[in-house]
């Protein structure tokens, strides 16, 4: 990075590559947003043109709000996403603190075992997970999704947070112990505030896959009362006829919360990534 700063050509090339990647990443979002405000014919006639007085239409948003129970789907997605992130950050931070702070027999093997969870996709165990949820009576409940997503996100959370917690000063923790603080107080009041950038990084990395997931809601919670936003949007996609206005409008409304949360956590995310790179 220092050589890139000294050489203007390298810096310009780096910034150009980053700008190009950003444009490529945002292009599908831009296409979805502009076409959600068009009538059906304009979507296929000029998909890249901005909506004008002739092509502008809100029929897609009206269909989503009338035909599908969008508010219920949105509420279910929020409950599942927020609940999963809460447990991922809570249990992941606790496990990371234990692995980074205490040395015990089998700690290395436990760390390697958790690392396997990053390499092996959880969808491989879909059949076993479904059997477990049926046996416990959790099918068609939001708890089934929260538990699965928590198990899915914990390995990455422990891996990231443990590296950051190893950098927390031992003198600070020992000073807390000398002052009579319990381990829980040291963890919640001294350690967690210092690893907030890392927790924001973990939250963003897990939030988007959970919010956009279609696989587990379709298998574990397909009932009308427990449908998530991604699954609920499928009602507008038929075998022979697809209501593209409604599909694009539903996708636009689904993108908005993710963008808002990313903007909120972006500073902490950047701090977490850059500090992790320096370490």
UniProtKB/TrEMBL annotation:
SUPFAM superfamilies: MetI-like
Compartment list: Cell membrane
Domain ABC transmembrane type-1: 74-265
Primary residence: membrane
UniProt superkingdom: Bacteria
GO CC term (a single one): plasma membrane
Membrane-topology descriptor: Multi-pass membrane protein
Keyword Membrane: yes
Alphabetical UniProt keywords: Cell membrane, Membrane, Transmembrane, Transmembrane helix, Transport
One example of a Gene Ontology biological process annotation: transmembrane transport
Membrane-crossing residue ranges in chain numbering: 12-34, 78-99, 111-130, 142-165, 186-208, 246-265
Family: Belongs to the binding-protein-dependent transport system permease family.
PANTHER family: ABC TRANSPORTER PERMEASE PROTEIN MG189-RELATED, ABC TRANSPORTER PERMEASE PROTEIN MG189-RELATED-RELATED
Protein name, UniProt field: Sugar ABC transporter permease
Organism, as annotated: Roseivivax isoporae LMG 25204
């Amino acid at each position: 990075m220092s050589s890139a700063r000294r050489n203007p050509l390298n810096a310009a090339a780096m910034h150009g590559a980053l700008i190009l990647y950003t444009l490529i990443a945002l292009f599908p979002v831009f296409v979805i947003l502009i076409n959600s405000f068009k009538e059906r014919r304009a979507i296929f006639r000029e998909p890249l043109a901005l909506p004008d007085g002739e092509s502008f239409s809100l029929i897609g948003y009206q269909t989503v709000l009338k035909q599908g129970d969008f508010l219920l789907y949105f509420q279910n997605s929020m409950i599942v996403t927020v609940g999963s992130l809460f447990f991922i950050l809570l249990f992941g931070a606790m496990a990371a603190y234990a692995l980074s702070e205490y040395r015990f027999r089998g700690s290395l093997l436990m760390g390697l075992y958790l690392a396997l969870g990053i390499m092996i996709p959880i969808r491989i165990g879909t059949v076993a997970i479904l059997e477990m949820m049926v046996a416990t009576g959790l099918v068609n409940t939001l708890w089934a999704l929260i538990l699965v997503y928590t198990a899915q996100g914990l390995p990455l959370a422990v891996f990231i947070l443990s590296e950051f917690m190893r950098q927390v000063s031992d003198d600070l923790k020992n000073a807390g112990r000398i002052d009579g603080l319990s381990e829980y107080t040291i963890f919640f009041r001294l350690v967690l505030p210092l690893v907030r950038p890392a927790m924001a990084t973990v939250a963003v990395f897990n939030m988007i896959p959970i919010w956009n997931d279609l696989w587990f809601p379709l298998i574990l919670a397909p009932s009308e009362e427990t449908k998530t936003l991604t699954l609920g949007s499928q009602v507008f996609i038929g075998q022979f006829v697809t209501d593209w206005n409604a599909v694009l409008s539903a996708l636009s409304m689904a993108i908005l919360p993710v963008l808002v949360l990313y903007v909120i956590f972006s500073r902490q995310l950047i701090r977490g990534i850059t500090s992790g790179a320096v370490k």
